[in-house]
From TrEMBL:
Region of interest (Disordered), residue spans: 1-27, 34-53, 611-642
Biased segments, Gly residues type: 8-22
Residue stretches making up the Glycosyltransferase 2-like domain: 331-533
Organism: Leersia perrieri
Name under which the protein is recorded: Glycosyltransferase 2-like domain-containing protein
């Protein structure tokens, strides 16, 4: 018999040997284990006697506690390693000294003058907050933090500091607190209005799910019961597919391959690859890819513009001026990183049949790299809500939403009736959608038709994308406000377009997010006479975050980072909104969102495994060669990517942490925790630790 851990001999259940004690079974089931206590021995038995039994039972519990301590130590070690890695990355950022100001010289995303002024204002607030914190700490040490201490009582105290602090209290009470409280109340009202709008959208989405509301093609509604029924009866309209791209070397192959494999008669669709690349090597590679598909029998054309007038809008406008476009009824747009399924056209084009007033059918985006890092996970939460809730509700109830710029099918007649593509803003997709809506065209959104694409993996790319997405709508609002008023659409549609679509969701949202949580909240810590209720700081934002994350339930563990990151991004969005509204700086600057091309390897291997030749004989490329080519990294002549320090975010982090320290003097618990975590969030983003990490 093997020796026992607890007695001289062991067998069977631990602790049930010659010794006594309470028998315990320890189940070691990796990675979890459990402990269960068995019934003690009956009184009078040898096993129940004396101190020896209690001692052995104590050793059993000690062993179990040691196992638990070992597991806890392992977790602490992992957390310590992660903390050291983050600290090391932060040290490298500071040592390198690369900032967003350096990046602006090569790829400007916003005006240098405006960026400098905005950053200067934040630094002034930071210096003032540090001075006020020093004053408040000195007053706290004097015992002047008590509620019964007033400016009048301090006048009886001798000393220059007491007189100065009494004067500061009078200034706060008489001059600073009233306007600050008014601004606070105004922002709270805007916050509540926007929260109600968000709640109504969620209720509309629940109603759609409950009733099973979704667009159905007339042919399928007539009894065939198949969403592709409208394209199965031999009626295949002429479709033009446009693929605008610019220096997107990482993703062009898989996107062109996916579009060329669309399940549609070859004679009834033509592909235009609209290359605006200014890099000769990239242009040559794209042209070679097009020629390869031409040899496979696909009707595909390569077009290259030397001068990028109008950016994407100019590219699309130039392509629509081709003489052969008049032979086509519909046009489909796919950006360079979009990879539609083979049945995309069969699931979208039938929705136009018998509906002459439908101008646009928009599909949903899905993301191949949503789990790549924390930044892509948080983007996925935002975009899932946008498509699942905003687009679906607006499409179902008012037949209008903002065109997403890609993965959509337009009726060419609707484009021409609306004036075609215009280069007047950086959101040409929203521009054409608004003008088509004013002409009376209806939009359909298909939540069950997905098109794969790629999310920006670096904070630099995401920041530039968000700047363009939030400055463009304000440019458009200034340009089309009079047209909305003069249009012949109904009064309520005008109200929806002006107050909900533009003002509430494009202007008020970034305004109050930045002003309320990044300006007013820290100021109320130094001017305590103006109050910001705890339910505004904690409960309403938490509720809105829960609603936002419902369309992506797997992202619930990231609900706190999501709330903090949204407030952090409010700086970029507010800056972009002001830039677009007042035409400042880079309001008209277009910066192409950088792609990593991570989706290419998995998709190409998947296509190889599925033997895509079954889809269309002779139409598939040599996918084995493509897979091999993708596995070998290409030499790129461009400059290497770097992580950078973002000065505005870093300065705001110190400002919020200073305000958090001030809140401790007033014992404001919720305000302290919110300011502290929000300051840490700004610090992480300011040191570029949230997205892709470049070694």
């Amino acid at each position: 018999m093997a020796p026992s851990w607890w007695g001289r001999s062991g067998g069977g259940v631990v602790g049930n040997g010659s010794g006594g004690g309470t028998p315990v079974v320890v189940k070691m089931e990796n990675p979890n284990w459990s402990i269960s206590e068995m019934e003690p021995a009956p009184p009078g038995s040898p096993a129940a006697a004396g101190k020896d039994a209690r001692g052995k039972n104590a050793r059993q519990i000690t062993w179990v506690l040691l196992l638990k301590a070992h597991r806890a130590a392992g977790r602490l070690t992992g957390a310590a390693s992660a903390a050291l890695a983050v600290a090391s990355a932060a040290r490298r950022r500071v040592a390198a000294g690369r900032t967003d100001a350096d990046a602006a010289a090569t790829a400007p995303g916003e005006s240098t003058a405006m960026r400098t002024r905005f950053y200067g204002c934040i630094r002034v607030f930071l210096v003032l907050s540090l001075l006020l914190l020093a004053v408040e700490v000195a007053a706290y040490l004097q015992g002047w933090h008590l509620e019964d201490v007033t400016a009048s009582s301090l006048l009886a105290v001798d000393g220059l500091f007491a007189a100065g602090y009494a004067g500061w209290m009078r200034v706060r009470l008489d001059y600073l607190a009233p306007p600050l409280q008014f601004l606070t109340n105004a922002c709270v009202v805007l916050f509540l209005v926007q929260s109600i709008d968000r709640l109504v959208l969620c209720l509309g989405c629940f109603w759609i799910k409950f009733k099973g509301i979704k667009p159905v093609p007339l042919a399928a509604a007539g009894g065939k019961g198949d969403v592709e029924a409208g394209a199965d009866d031999g009626d295949f309209p002429m479709v033009l597919v446009q693929m605008p791209m610019c220096n997107e070397r990482e993703v062009y192959q898989q996107s062109i391959g996916a579009v060329c494999n669309l399940d549609w008669p070859r004679s009834n669709f033509l592909i235009q690859v609209l290359d605006d690349s200014d890099d000769a090597t990239t242009s040559a590679l794209i042209k070679e890819e097009v020629e390869k598909w031409q040899r496979e029998g696909v009707r595909i054309i390569y077009r290259h513009r030397v001068i990028r007038d109008g950016y994407k809008a100019g590219n699309l406008k130039s392509a629509m001026n081709c003489s052969y476009v008049k032979d086509y009824e519909f046009v489909v747009i796919f950006d360079a990183d979009f990879q539609p399924q083979a049945d995309f056209l069969k699931r979208t084009v039938p929705h136009f049949k018998g509906k002459d007033d439908v101008g646009l059918v928009q599909a949903r985006w899905s993301f191949v790299n949503k789990d790549e890092n924390l930044l892509t996970r948080l983007q996925n939460v935002n975009l899932c809500f946008h498509f699942e809730v905003e687009q679906q509700v607006n499409g179902a109830f008012i037949n209008f939403f903002g065109f997403n710029g890609t993965a959509g099918v337009w009726r060419i007649k609707a484009l021409e009736d609306s004036g075609g593509w215009m280069e007047r803003t950086t959101v040409e997709d929203m521009d054409i959608a608004v003008r088509a809506h004013l002409k009376g065209w209806k939009f359909l959104y298909l939540n069950d038709v997905e098109c794969q694409c790629e999310l920006p993996e670096s904070y630099e790319a995401y920041r530039k994308q968000q700047h363009r997405w939030h400055s463009g709508p304000m440019q458009l609002f200034r340009l089309c406000f009079v047209d909305i008023i003069k249009s012949k659409i109904g009064f309520w549609k005008k109200c929806n377009l002006i107050f909900l679509f533009f003002l509430l969701r494009k202007l008020i949202l970034p305004f109050y997010s930045f002003t309320l949580f990044c300006v007013i909240l820290p100021m109320t810590m130094f001017v305590p006479e103006a109050e910001l209720p705890a339910w505004v700081v904690c409960y309403i934002p938490a509720t809105m975050s829960i609603l936002n994350i419902l369309p992506a339930p797997k992202s619930f563990p990231f609900i706190v980072p999501y709330l903090l990151f949204e407030n952090t991004m409010s700086v970029t969005k507010f800056n972009a909104m002001i830039s677009g509204l007042f035409q400042l700086g880079s309001a008209y600057e277009w910066v192409v969102t950088k792609k990593s091309g991570r989706s290419s390897e998995g998709d190409l291997v998947g296509l190889v495994e599925k033997h895509s030749k079954q889809q269309r004989v002779g139409s598939a490329p040599n996918l084995d060669a493509l897979t091999k080519e993708e596995s070998n990294p290409k030499k790129d002549s461009k400059k290497k990517k770097h992580n950078r320090i973002y000065r505005k975010e870093l300065a705001l982090s110190f400002l919020l942490l200073t305000a958090a320290a001030r809140s401790l003097l007033s014992a404001q618990g919720i305000h302290f925790y919110f300011l502290m975590f929000q300051g840490v969030s700004f610090l992480v983003v300011g040191l570029d630790l949230i997205g892709e990490q470049v070694e």
